[in-house]
Amino acid sequence: MAKIAINIATGTLEQKEVIVGIDLGTTNSLVAIIHPETKQPIALKDIDQTTLVPSLLHFGAHGEMHVGNEAKLYLKTDSSNTIYSVKRLLGKNYNDLKNTQKLSYKIIDNETDSLVKIQVGDLFFSPIELSSFILKELKHRAEHVLKMNVSKCVITVPAFFNDAQRQATRDAGKLAGLEVLRIINEPTAASLAYGIGTKSDETKNVAVYDLGGGTFDVSILKITDGIFDVVSTHGDTYLGGDDFDNEIVQHFTQQLGLTNDEFQSNANLISILRLEAESAKKHLSSNDVYESTVMDKRVSITQSEFENAIQSLVDKTIDSCATALKESELTTEEIDVVVMVGGSTRVPYVKKRVSAFFKKQVNDSVNPDEVVALGAAIQADILAGNNKEVLLLDITPLSLGIETMGGLMDVLIPRNSKIPSRAGRQYTTQKDGQSSMRIAVYQGERDLVSDNRKLAEFNLTGIPGMPAGLPKVDIQFLINADGILKVKATELRSGVEQIIEVKPQYGLTDEEVENMLMASITNAKEDIQLRSLIEATTEGQTQIEFTQNFLSKHKQYITEEELLATENAILEIKKAIDAKDKNAIMAANESLNTISSPYAERVMDIAIAEAMKGKKV
Ligand code: AMP
What dihedral do alpha carbons 477, 126, 128, 65 form, nearest 10°? Predict the structure, then answer.
């Protein structure tokens, strides 16, 4: 593990408590605080003087785990056990990932709606667990530097993150032993770092252009009286500085006179040229030409050759700016400030194009790799009550949600959401012909509803008889400015509807709220382990029920051998469920899936063929 040096200007830190700001990135993550003396935000550095922790994890053959720079060493040598880009998987199910790029590690693919899992050897991890390992590393780093316990934080997420992705980020924080006081949007954090919107009577329209290593997005914010409203956001989750590098690699390949095949078949050469390309790109950010030697031959690239090579990529980002601006119903003249975020905005051509589009100078004085974390630290300081000049909006003190299968809490409005607030999600029935659905509303931070506080319960009745999974029950939570929660449940196919009103804060003292929060932190690890065990168990039981149902209908098409293998696999799941072993249940689920997929496909083909027979095409 890398040693950490104290890099905060001299003097001891005598703060009792610190709330850190965390940028949990796709490629790199970092942690920042407000310096207790200078009152300026700073990113915490390790002994190599780098603030960035690569968002990478490597799992060794003997169960050892490497995080950050240590894991980077294995990216090429042991790629199937090195996990990168976890942020792309947070809160996603298999269907969400259908059209995305392949990763070099194993994602369990059983084409269901449940959240993805990652398999490394015999171990199964959720993206939440993996993200928590990175957050834990950041927590340790902060504790090392600050020489104090760090348990509270603000974490940033892209503006386009949905409810599930935000909740997954919260859970990851919780699992890392951090109380996530607030999840804030990355463009909001970047604006805060430039001091935009920190005065209570300020009204500003801001464009935040964020071009990193592998992702791009642009957001338009309307800031009024301390309220940061992301009015539109657009981008490409697979566009960034890596693509610039690829263009330079192609340029060098041509200079070296290599054919594409010669290049593709030489893994060593690919990595040498990629490194050369990144050096060239960085060099060109402050020089006109780059020259070097590869395989005893000279390679070079000039500023204008580079600009030509990346022009179409930058065009795409400018198109996104135009789309986001159109959606915000603002004109370029109405945008007051443009803020640059992400390492790739150091490229002068990128700055030039963005500046030309918005017809104004861009803000690039803050380090674009750190700007988001620095803004998160400013937000953390506001929450800590140290920055009284900034308006803090009224917020929900505890999370609000409903009970789902297995007695789990499904949060719809997370704690610290601003009031008024609205959130909704769709649910379905578990049994064929189910005509009513019990909706129990809870408040609290624990994963099991039995540990939280029940606010209300009601039945949505009159759902027309349909097979399980077909009804669509939409549940909407609406908290008005007085903190009154309205819960509305509607079965969308039939229009059956029910509404109730609850007062979430009623009867809770500040001390009780504090106790509930403390309990959620103290029990976070057990809670999340229990949650994943319940989720794996529910998945196993559903799979058993589904398979048995399938077998009873299509037994004639299934061989004796397949039947026997299926029965054994079912037995394995049952055994693992009895043993309450999450990894074993998931492994058994996976093996039942492998056994049943071939005959399920075969039966489907037969069914289609039979259906076609009766019809003249
Ligand atoms: P981020 O994802 O925000 O950390 O951005 C990382 C990307 O920024 C990588 O593609 C880097 O190669 C790129 N980058 C870092 N420094 C520079 C620089 N001086 N000039 C151009 N690109 C850079």
Answer: 170
Query: Do 406 and 539 form a contact (C-beta atoms < 8 A)?
Result: no
Alpha helices (H) in 412-559, listed in sequence order = 510-522, 524-554
Instruction: Classify burial at 127, counting beta carbons within 10 Å of its beta carbon; exposed 0-12, middle 13-18, buried 19 or more.
Output: buried
Tens of pLDDT along 413-447?
Answer: 988 777 778 889 999 888 888 999 999 999 888 89
For tokens 């950490």, name the residue.
Answer: 4
> Residue 574 catalytic?
no
Domain 400-511 identical in fold to domain 526-612? no
Question: CA-based angle 107:109:115, to the nearest 5?
Answer: 75
Is the per-residue pLDDT at 350 higher than 90? Answer: yes
Q: Cα 471 from chain centroid?
A: 29
360 is catalytic: no
Which one is catalytic: 186, 247, 445, 447? 186
If one compares 397 and 32, the residue with the highest pLDDT of the two is: 32
Check if 27 has its Cβ closer than 6 Å to any atom of ligand 1: yes
The 3 state secondary structure assigned to 409-428 is: EEEEECCCCECCEEEEEEEC
Ligand 1 pocket check for 241: Cβ under 6 Å: yes
Q: Which residue among 282, 306, 339 has the greatest number of ligand 1 atoms within 8 angstroms of its CB, and so is best to mutate? A: 282
Cα gap 292→274, rounded to integer Å: 13
Instruction: Assess contact for 34 and 41: CB atoms under 8 A.
Output: yes
Within 8 A by CB and 6+ apart from 392, the residues are 226, 382, 383
Q: Which residues of 219-249 are buried (b: 16+ CB within 10 A; e: fewer)?
A: bbbbbeebebebebbbbbbebbbbbbbbbbb
Residue 208 · residue 196 · CB < 8 Å: no
For residues 588 and 445, give the distance between their C-alpha atoms in angstroms, rounded to a whole number.
31
CATH number given to 526-612: 1.20.1270.10
Where exactly are the structural domains of the chain?
Answer: 400-511, 526-612
Q: What is the pLDDT of residue 482?
A: 63
Q: Tell whether the torsion through CA atoms of 544, 546, 552 and 557 is positive or negative.
A: negative
Task: Given CATH 2.60.34.10, say whether it is the number of domain 400-511.
Answer: yes
In this structure, the strands spanning 337-341 and 203-211 are parallel
What is the distance between the alpha carbons of residues 493 and 497, in angstroms, rounded to a whole number?
11
φ/ψ of residue 188, rounded to 5: -65, -45
The 10s digit of each residue's pLDDT in 243-276 is: 999 999 999 999 999 888 887 787 788 888 988 9
Q: What is the dihedral of CA 191, 182, 35, 52, to 10 degrees?
A: -80
Give the helix/strand (H/E) hosting 291.
Answer: strand 289-294
54 lines ligand 1 (CB under 6 A): no
